[in-house]
From TrEMBL:
Keywords (A to Z) from UniProt: G-protein coupled receptor, Membrane, Receptor, Transducer, Transmembrane, Transmembrane helix
Source species: Ridgeia piscesae
Protein known as: G-protein coupled receptors family 1 profile domain-containing protein
Residue ranges of domain G-protein coupled receptors family 1 profile in the record: 66-124
InterPro entries listed in its UniProt record: GPCR_Rhodpsn, GPCR_Rhodpsn_7TM
Length: 139
């Protein structure tokens, strides 16, 4: 049974049917650990988990290496300082942003049940993914 500290009826007794909030909240009032999960909890097999981690790490390393190489080559070669190559650098920077902000989040989301990164990071992740998707369009 959930604690009813802070919820009282007009006579001051704990009553969940006719209650008013008096300002104090018990620590277990918002405890949802006893609630049943509405779906089936996903259990990722170990071989699948290892494969996904190795694959995502390889994608992240290749994306970092390739995009940093593109940026470095355009930066060092003065002949490539024109609109076309600046656009290519913009695409490389955008791809780096996707790599930093989105790729590992998809891995964590793939390997766990539900969102485990917290409310703040949910908002930051949504913002960063939206920013990354708009940055490559140049809009």
């Amino acid at each position: 049974m959930m604690s009813l500290s802070g919820l009282t009826n007009v006579t001051g007794e704990a009553d969940p049917t006719n209650c008013t909030y008096n300002g104090s909240v018990g620590t277990d009032m918002f405890d949802v650990s006893r609630l049943l999960y509405p779906g089936v909890i996903k259990a990722v097999p170990t071989p699948e988990m290892v494969f996904k981690i190795v694959f995502y790490v390889a994608v992240i390393v290749v994306a970092l290496g390739g995009n940093l190489l593109v940026i470095y080559v355009v930066w060092r070669n003065k002949r490539l300082h024109n609109t076309t190559y600046f656009y290519i650098v913009n695409l490389a920077v955008s791809d780096l942003m996707v790599t930093f902000f989105c790729t590992w989040v998809h891995l964590v989301n793939d390997l766990t049940e539900g969102w485990v990164l917290g409310v703040f990071f949910c908002k930051v992740n949504s913002f960063s993914q939206g920013s990354c998707s708009w940055s490559w369009r140049g809009e």
